[in-house]
Automatic annotation (TrEMBL):
Its main location: membrane. May be involved in the folding of the extracellular lipase during its passage through the periplasm. This is Lipase chaperone. GO terms for biological process: lipid catabolic process; protein folding. InterPro entries: Lipase_chaperone (IPR004961). It comes from the Bacteria. The keyword Cell inner membrane applies. It holds the Pfam family Lipase_chap.
Length: 342
């Protein structure tokens, strides 16, 4: 029972990571496996045009939570009916594995074997079943990997996890299979780990970090850039700007860092936004001080309310700003930190 609980935890973690990776990964990324398929003559996408959806005993291959979905198991074969290992292969395996909890592991094994026998022929049949067996053993072994004895704040913590996972994969799969099953995932992890190394490099200033981050990003394929650009650059801008401000750096340092990271035009837009935010902060701070003076005065409640309304209208002519400042008033009165954008 404990072993099955551990297995379920591993499945959930991998699905969460996998979901993020496949969402970020470019849709038309080709792995080495795909390149291999192009060298084959007239590759077919799957062995059966209409795959069977029920087992010989009449039970469905999908779980109750998957009943409104198609069976995601269209593995790719070459012209000689040999398996081409790629993301489709892993998607097929994961389709069955994610049924754990609604089905037992034994039932999942039985369903997968029956499905493959119904929909694929030799030589792909034996190749798929052999790879499935090794993939299941690999997934089970993931739960026994030791957590690095390093602080999670240290980038080496994540590098150690990645290296341990890579070493484990080499015990079960060939280089060709690893590239096919995990190629896009590995690309994303390597890029992310290199970013962490740059961001946490103690001998680089923020401008130098921005230069290296941009160079690292420029090395990515164009389709990866499209998916990762906004996500990574926003994160890098926030982190490096916060670092400069935390050590009392100048506005010129922030300007240089931004120019290196996102270019002069985007930097100019960011500086306009900085100015707008600064003006808003000054207006709100000044308004709240005057409002406090009114509230603490000896006027009647009705007079205080009228005076505050007049004050608000003087500081904020725009109706949207007047509504927005109401939030700041409430947080200020409760002693909370005002939600200024940084």
């Amino acid at each position: 029972m404990q072993k099955h609980k551990l297995w379920l935890i591993v499945v959930i973690i991998l699905l969460a990571i996998g979901g993020l990776i496949y969402w970020l990964a470019p849709k038309n990324t080709q792995t080495m496996a795909s390149q291999h398929s192009e060298q084959s003559s007239n590759p077919s996408t799957n062995a059966s045009t209409l795959p069977q959806t029920t087992s010989p005993n009449g039970l469905p291959y999908f779980s109750p939570s998957q009943q409104d979905t198609q069976i995601n198991c269209q593995m790719k074969l070459d012209g000689s009916q040999h398996l081409i290992v790629n993301e489709q292969t892993r998607n097929c395996f994961e389709y069955f594995i994610t049924q754990y909890g609604e089905k037992s592991l034994d039932q999942i094994q039985q369903d997968f074997n029956a499905y493959i026998h119904q929909n694929y022929k030799e030589p792909a049949l034996s190749q798929i079943l052999d790879l499935w067996k090794r993939y299941m053993n690999y997934r089970e072994r993931l739960g026994s990997l030791q957590t690095p004895n390093i602080s999670q704040d240290d980038p080496q913590y994540y590098r150690a996890i990645f290296n341990s996972t890579q070493n484990l994969r080499k015990q079960f799969f060939s280089d060709y299979e690893i590239e096919g099953l995990f190629g896009p995932e590995n690309t994303y992890h390597e890029y992310t780990l290199k970013r962490l190394d740059i961001i946490h490099h103690k001998k680089l200033n923020e401008t130098e970090k921005a230069q290296k981050l941009k160079a690292l990003f420029d090395e990515l394929p164009e389709d990866w850039k499209e998916n990762l650009e906004q996500l990574n650059k926003l994160e890098d801008l926030r982190k490096l700007t916060a670092d400069i401000k935390a050590r009392g750096g100048s506005a010129e340092e922030i300007h240089q860092m931004r120019t290196q990271l996102v270019g002069p035009e985007a930097t100019q837009r960011l500086e306009v936004l900085d100015s707008q935010r600064s003006n808003w902060k000054s207006s709100v701070d000044g308004y709240l001080i005057e409002r406090d003076n009114i509230i603490k005065s000896g006027m009647s409640d009705g007079a205080k309310q009228k005076a505050v309304q007049q004050l608000r209208a003087q500081h904020f002519q725009n109706k949207e700003d007047q509504l927005r400042v109401n939030t700041f008033e409430s947080i200020h009165d409760q002693g909370g930190k005002l939600p200024y954008s940084e």
